[in-house]
Amino acid sequence: MSSILLVIILLALLAALPRWEYSRDWGYGPSGVLAVVLVLLVVMALTHSGAPL
Q1: Distance between alpha carbon 52 and the CA centroid of its chain, in Å?
Q2: Which of 23, 27, 40, 47 has the greatest number of C-beta atoms within 10 Å?
């Protein structure tokens, strides 16, 4: 289960990179949302509140 979560996180990191012209104007929005999700996963893993890590 943790390897699936790791693959999903890596794909989300790649998707947050601004590679195309229209996505360069988005700013830090997609990566900011991804950072919040990663922080929540780390907190859940440290407190053992159901995170599959």
Answers
A1: 15
A2: 23
Q: Which of 19, 16, 45 is nearest to 32 (CA)?
A: 16
pLDDT at 13: 73
With beta carbons less than 8 A apart as the criterion, state whether 14 and 43 touch: no
Q: pLDDT tens across 1-53, in order?
A: 567 777 777 777 777 666 666 666 766 666 677 777 777 777 777 777 654 55
- Given a contact cutoff of 8 angstroms between Cβ atoms, the answer to whether 30 and 15 are in contact is yes
Whole-prediction pTM: 0.47
Residues 6+ apart with CB under 8 A from 15: 30
Quick one: tokens of 15?
């998707």
